[in-house]
Amino acid sequence: MAAGNVNPFNLSDSDEEAERRPSETADTERSPSDGAPGPPPGNPFSPPADAEPPSLLLSCSRTSPSGEGISVSAAATAAMAGSGETRVSVDVIAAQLLRDQYILTALEFHTELLEAGRELPRLRDYFSNPGNFERQSGTPPASKDQVLGPGGPLSKADPVLHDRAGSISTLDSLDFARYSDDGNRESDERVAVLEFELRKAKETIQALRANLTQAAESEVPSQERKNFKSSPEIQEPIRPLEKRALNFLVNEYLLKNEYKLSSITFSDENDDQDFELWDDVGLNIPKPPDLLQLYRNCGSALPLPRDMVDVAVGVDFGELPGNYITQDPPKNLVFFFFLLNSEKQSLAEQIKKLQRCVCVCVYVLYGGLSPAFQQALLSFCRMSSDSRLGAEVSRIADSEESVMLMLGRCLPHIVPNVLLAKREELIPLILCTACLHPEPKERDQLLHILFNLIKRPDDEQRQMILTGCVAFARHVGPTRVEAELLPQCWEQINHKYPERRLLVAESCGALAPYLPKEIRSSLVLSMLQQMLAEDKADMVREAVVKSLGIIMGYIDDPDKYSQGFELMLLSLGDPSERVVSAIHQVFIPAFAAWTTELGTLHTALIPSLLARIEKLLTQGEHGLDEHKLHMFLSALQSLIPPLFAVVLQNAPFTSRAKLHGEIPAIEVTRFPRPASPLQDVATIIGSREMLSALLLLYDHQLEHEGTTGWDSLLWVVNQLLPQLIEIVGRINVTSSTCVHEFSRFFWRFCRTFGKIFTNTKVKPQFQEILRLSEENVDATAGNGILTKATVPIYATGVLTCYNQEEDRKLLVGFLEDVMTTLSLSHAPLDSLKASFVELGANPVYHELLLTVLWYGVVHTSALVRCTAARMFELLVKGVNETLVAQRVVPALITLSSDPEISVRISTIPAFGTIMETVTQKELLERVKMQLASFLEDPQYQDQHSLHMEIIRTFGRVGPNAEPRFRDEFVLPHLHKLALSNNSQAVESKRIDIATQLFEAYSALSCCFISEELMVNHFLPGLRCLRADMEQLSPEHEVRTCTHTHTHTHTQDFISVSIASSLVGEDAKTKFLSKMGQLTTSGAMLANVFQRKK
Questions:
Q1: 419-428 pLDDT, tens digit each
Q2: Fold classified for 454-598
Q3: Nearest to 1025, CA basis, from 1052, 1062, 1050
Q4: What is the pLDDT of residues 1018-1066, one digit of tens each?
Q5: Which residues contact 462 (CB under 8 A, 6 or more apart)?
């Protein structure tokens, strides 16, 4: 064959060639060590055994570093001249390129071989060994031992060359300047090498992913897969990689169809997967179509399978542990995963470094612009650094201090542009900047912004600001709080908006623990005192009182006691209930805790309040100031829990209290419900466990050992109790408010100190004073103490503390004795009435009071029975109608038939009250029949006292009674009584009846009265009353000047009414018209029917 027709690169893969390769392998592999690589002597151009046909023609010609101008194509042409049919081995070409240091040509050759799928081991091992790229000085050696670099010849004897080395070390060792003839060539070659290395690393990662995929799929045992194949009805469980692929497709479907919230939730539930990158699935296959396409193609024929290429990563088993092969498959798999993951992470780091190197090379290659040109070019970008904001944006903070400085400059400009409703979001930023900013002036400005952040902050916004202030105070310390925060509070103390003043008041209390003690007891106390005295807003004064309480909890200057006491009295006298409630909930408990530390609670504070109560009673003999009494007594009541705590803490047994062991729980009803947690005895003591242990020892000490050596309790028994009982005896028993306040005080006092203390210390002192024994009853003078408020306060404040059977019996016996004693001694019944009113307000005691009254109903003395009848009047209003029907009415009917007329008369007020309050018709009929018997029975015709009582009762209950009862019973009988009084011979009786009739008609005149009743009963009764008034003596003491004037108006009123009725006009219209005339002329209707007493 002619030489010109021979293609030296037209290599064949025929079987004949394959048979010749084994014999040629040895010579080819030996050639590098024997000198210049070349063909064996017999056949110089025969390819070696491991050579593969190339896929590209090497047509490039480069000059070697040694100056030899031998090109690859020329060498090939010379070789072909000796033989017509010879083919050049790719390994020979690669060896020649490496020998002559054509590194980039060899790299391009190696790349194209890889793309053709025919990797050459010689080139692969060369470019994988970092030793071949170490820097060397001078020209490349011509020795055959140095052809392939310091690594030596490529042979099987050196297994190190089969190891894969890091790409970054290979690149760092290249000296590109050696192979460049000009400046640009260096960058070109370096970029080419870097791109090659990057591609190699990505291919390696792809191969690792393929191995991971195969390893993960092999988790399903082969026997289990056979079972699934043999039984198609059994569905094979989903594999992890299949699950990740389906998750990716589902998330993609949700996003494409605008199910964004579902996609977010789905991503959160699969947080171990990156749904933005398909390669994260782990499969070494292309991304499949979306779910919609899969659904549409599910019924069509499946596409033909594509050609697949298996890619694997070689693992040298010599590197594995010695027992690796003998291990169980699961352990091998875990170890294999570990190796692959480690190599994957290492390669990923190398890829990042390679990418940075590529960027550097590109910058070096194309970044050769002059600075002036670059600046002029960049000027076309629209940037602004001239303004304040532009300067801040262009100057990025590079340290914590510079960040604080930047925030200090920017926040004053940010705050005004934030919505008022969202400004609290800036509080953390402002506070952090104020804490860490180095400039005091800037810190002051930031804190000023904080307190003026919101124009009128609501509760939640104030809480946020207060929380931030406390955090600031904890961080900066007392000195900076005094210097930076307090001035802001002082500036806002007189702000026009109450919300801002409220913020100041609350800040003083919140910052109290973080202020210097001298400032707490001077400046802050003065600020709060000024606000309490001058501020007009109730909510501000309430906050001031609470902050004062906090200040009192942290104050330690004994000289401030008098100032604190005056603040307490000032707050107690505040007209706002909110302020008074705050004083009891916060200030008084805190002030009491401080006085406890000083030891002045029972030596100064409580005696001072008692002295003011006594002074008030002394000054108020002709008119007691009940408001001040309530004020002092409520303060004394709030001091009961801290006083009891002092008694426990100073007891002889306090040191013996132990918390270990079984300690019974405190009964829920052991103590009265506290008004606030600060009044809870357990809180004052420290814990419920400690209180329970002390209570056990307290009860045992009182019951068995006494009070010897117990100074605090002895003061309560010997000084406090006698003084309180003496004060109780001086208050007015008719003042229901005072009786109620003292009863409440003694009830809380006894409940707090316990049942044993009440039975052994309190009750004996009251019983000694009351002297309820029968031999001490004086029928002529009466028993003075029984008419005082001591009786109702002892009954309702002491005897009702505990509601067991023996306690109820004691209360019943005491009330029965009082009723008997007062009745037999003809003493006033005010104390007994006060007891019934106070006890009757609680339905629990209705049965008990009815028992006491029944005792009086069946008593042998008529005086006691009269008292019982009058007590029913007080009890009926609060008792339910069932008890009235079953217990009250039978008792009253029994008394209404009593032999003594005085007893029967005493029942009339109670019957009238029933008519006023009860709605049951049957019950009302029974009462109506009983009253009718009093009026119509002939035996009562001359009973002047009975008629007086009936008229008085009608006047009292008529306006509120049922209209039918008033129209059919009250008005007709009043008419009869007025008519009969005209014929009364005894002038004194006639005057009494006329006076009571006048009062009754005065009360009934404002009721709605029908025309028929007006004509038939009301006006005729008034005519009779007018006749009595005309005949009354002018010198009678009942008539006064005012009454004379009123009587004239009454006569005019009656005359006009009668004249109107006689001329046939509408009597009711004229009656109302006359009323209007009297009103417009200044004489009110109530003044017409009113007698001056």
A1: 877 888 888 8
A2: Leucine-rich Repeat Variant (1.25.10)
A3: 1050
A4: 888 888 888 877 776 444 334 333 333 443 444 444 444 443 333 334 4
A5: 499, 502, 503, 506
